[in-house]
Amino acid sequence: xxxxxxYDLRLAALDYLRFAAGVRKTTSRPFFLMVGFFGAHLPWVAxxxxxxxxxxxxxxxxxxxxxxxxxxxxxxxLQPVLLxxxxxxxxxxxxxxxxxxxxxxxxxYYAAMSYV
Length: 116
Hints:
Blueprint: H1 5-27, H2 48-51, E1 81-82, E2 88-89, H3 99-115
Antiparallel strand pairs: 1-2
């Protein structure tokens, strides 16, 4: 875990929360803490145990893998899908990524979100 940037960020956020909770108890002052985890963005990074929580073959694929006719083009990204090994997979509003890529990305996303 220590090699993942979000690990240290999580520990620091917990320290701030403990401090804020202590201040809240003694002063009744509300607090706000915003933490920007890296894991919520590409490239997905998580320890293997988070990947092990999910079976990629069981993950659903999108019902609509391409841009619908009523959706504006601005809602689509032209950036390629970036796999964990650095491989880029091109796609377009009318050409979806292969199903295995979609499952791979969902698997990695779920693992990363479970970690943070």
